[in-house]
Design goal:
The protein has about 150 residues and is α/β, with parallel strands linked by helices. The chain has one domain: Ribonuclease H-like superfamily/Ribonuclease H (Nucleotidyltransferase, domain 5, 2-Layer Sandwich), CATH 3.30.420. It has 4 helices and 5 strands, in the order E-E-E-H-E-H-H-E-H. The longest helix has 16 residues.
Length: about 150
């Protein structure tokens, strides 16, 4: 049974692409995600998850999918999701469309998971926000666990 009527989720993903600084370089890299669950200002749980080889947008969406799935075990009410990817937030809020065929299934999975809750809203925050930094640390810690 759901314990909370409302939660806030803060998510971040890291994606380490070799030679990402090279002009025109795009692609996939080893990825991990971090997520924090908050109720009434208190952190109720936090997780890191290793995601494998993904593109940066795939890593953001896959972290969110993991977070929404986990959140549904503790809340079926209102959910606020905070991400540092303004692009993903705008896609989820309907401001931008999904053009990439490989991203559409991830987008639809998020929308399907939203049905588990009364209401889900998406917000953007800068990567310098305190909780954004904490979610990023969780992602980086999980990434490092799988690098040996």
């Amino acid at each position: 049974m759901a314990r909370y009527k409302k939660i806030k989720i803060v998510c971040d993903a890291c994606c380490h692409i070799p030679q990402a600084h090279t002009y025109g370089r795009a692609g996939r890299g080893k990825s991990a995600g971090g997520m924090i669950f908050i109720n009434n200002g208190d952190i109720v749980s936090e997780f890191g998850v290793y995601l494998g080889e993904l593109t940066p947008p795939q890593a953001e969406y896959t972290t969110l999918i993991n977070a929404l799935d986990r959140a549904s075990a503790i809340c079926r009410g209102d959910v606020e999701v905070w991400l540092d990817s303004e692009f993903v937030v705008r896609q989820l809020n309907g401001d931008y469309g999904i053009k990439s065929e490989n991203m559409k299934p991830l987008y639809h999975e998020v929308k399907k998971l939203e049905d588990r809750f009364s209401n889900v809203r998406y917000f953007h925050h800068g990567s310098s926000a305190v909780l954004a930094k904490r979610a990023d640390r969780l992602a980086e810690q999980e990434y490092r666990r799988y690098q040996n």
